[in-house]
Amino acid sequence: MAHGSSGLKRLVHELAKFGAVGGAGLLVNLGVFNLVRHLTDLQVVRASVLATVVSIVFNYVGFRYFTYRDRDKGGRTRELTLFMAFSAVGLVIENGLLFTATYGFGWDSPLQNNVFKFVGIGVATLFRFWSYRTWVFRALPVTEPVPGAEPFRAVAEQARRPAPKASQRVG
Fold first, then answer.
1. Neighbour tally for 129: CB within 10 Å
2. How many C-beta atoms lie closer than 10 Å to residue 141's C-beta?
3. Where residue 1 falls among pLDDT bands split at 50, 70, 90?
4. Exposed (0-12), middle (13-18) or buried (19+): which is 4, by Cβ within 10 Å?
């Protein structure tokens, strides 16, 4: 039972870190979207796609170096390719909902644009979380502790500590 409990704790921890990066990415996405809409004559979906691309770049850095920094770092080309592919699917989900609301139903006020952009981000985030953790940022295999290896752990921890400065040495 303890193993299942630690697995749940790891998932909750991962969700929290994913949510922190995603929340910041959400602010980037909505901020760029509204800034572009306010400062340019770009159509709503084009402005949204631009904002989504900016947030994808922002999120990759956050996921790689914060959320999934302990994950397999081998094959960065593969990782980045998969990240971009799954992000493109998320972009289509996110902006497809906005496109449908805007051009399919005529809901085109700034408030409606933001509501449907937000809903699209939410739906796309569910897909992204699943795809990133499953395919992009793969977990390294969990290793069980080896019985009798405790003395070696103490030696390894001692080796990682910085050496004392000359002024701190006794003797």
1. 16
2. 6
3. very low
4. exposed
> Which DSSP state fits 106?
-
Percent of the chain at pLDDT > 90 equals 57
Structure tokens at 47: 């402005």
Q: Residue 98 and residue 106: Cα distance in Å, rounded?
A: 11
Q: What is the pTM of this model?
A: 0.74
* Ramachandran category for residue 159: left, alpha or beta (phi over 0 → left; psi -120 to 50 → alpha): alpha
Q: What is the DSSP string of 109-143?
A: SHHHHHHHHHHHHHHHHHHHHHHIIIIISPPPPP-
Cα R_g (the chain), whole angstroms: 22
